[in-house]
Amino acid sequence: MSLPMAIGGRLVPAVLTALLLFALSAASVQAGALNVVTTTSTMGMLAREIGAERVEVRVLAAPDRDPHYLDARPAFMAALRRADLLVEKGGDLEEGWLPAALTGAANPRLNSGRPGHFRASDFLHLRRSITMDGPNLGHVHGEGNPHFQLDPQRVAAVAAPLAARLGELLPADREAFEDRARMVSARILEHAETVATRLDPGQRFVAYHEDIDYLEEWLPVEIAGYLEPLPGIPPTARHLRSLADSLRDGPEGVVLHAVYQPARGAEFLAAEIGWSRQALPMEPPANGGLEDYLELMQVWAAAFQAGE
């Protein structure tokens, strides 16, 4: 790197300060771990597995919290202020709180379009959201259904572009990141196929929200309805009675909801039509790795085996 020209025989103090901060920052990244902040545990799992010892990962959303409804907490801003890379799911999932947290963090490295800001949904074809056909009430997912962590095929597809982004920030480790991404992707896809073959095909389920319906993308199961009349609108008595009438005389199934979603509507519908009910974890542990995500896939599939 060439030195700036001196003015009057002395370097401008502001230029010296900027050069020093840049040099310290670059040396810190190269000598230590990349500071990665992810919005969800599944994204944290991918970053941790692909980055290995070259990353330190902090997950913002606790796995037992609905990522739609978080607040832009000061702790989030502090974490983002120190981050070298932000990994978000995108698809409007974090729209209610992440922009405010980023504004509070004031970290130019994470600005949209910069290498330090990675949106997983930019690299995926999301499942079509009910909200794309209107009306615009409750949640509006104009880019598609953002809850793709329940589809291991899409999670596996994020591994390669995330490895490329890490390699852009740490070029010396690019090959190692790409190798680990291929391993992680292969393990996820192999496990998904194994888990899916254990289920009897054609089983039906009702989901609370348009999130668990991603199971339909890789398991031999069929979505039969939603407890919410529209995504983000709580179940109403009228909607639940109508749903029960439409399902009562058909094949049996299971009513599914996330652990953080209210159980009351699911319990009512299950009792009305004689189906089983299951509350599912939606994310691996905040500090979890690949094995935790593989185990979570088995838990999701087991919900359909409980009633067999």
Quaternary structure classification? single chain
Helix/strand/pairing category: alpha/beta
Strand line-up across the major sheet: 2-1-3-4
Low-confidence stretches: 1-28
Strand content: 5-15%
Individual helix count: 9
Classify the helix fraction into a percent range: 25-40%
**Mind summarizing the main beta sheet?**
4 strands, parallel
- Name the helix and strand elements from N-terminus to C-terminus, one letter apiece: HEHEHEHEHHEEHEHEH
The radius of gyration computed from the alpha-carbon positions, rounded to a whole number of angstroms, is 23 Å
| Terminal CA distance | 68 Å
Count the E strands: 8
Outline type: globular
Average per-residue pLDDT, rounded, comes to: 89
Explain what this protein looks like in three dimensions.
This protein has 308 residues and is of the alpha/beta class. It is built from nine helices and eight strands. The strands form two sheets. A four-stranded parallel sheet has the order 2-1-3-4, sandwiched between helices. It has a four-stranded parallel sheet with strand order 6-5-7-8, covered by helices on one side. β1 (34-38), α2 and β2 form a beta-alpha-beta unit. α3 packs across α4. The protein starts with 12 loop residues before the first helix and ends in a 6-residue tail after the last helix.
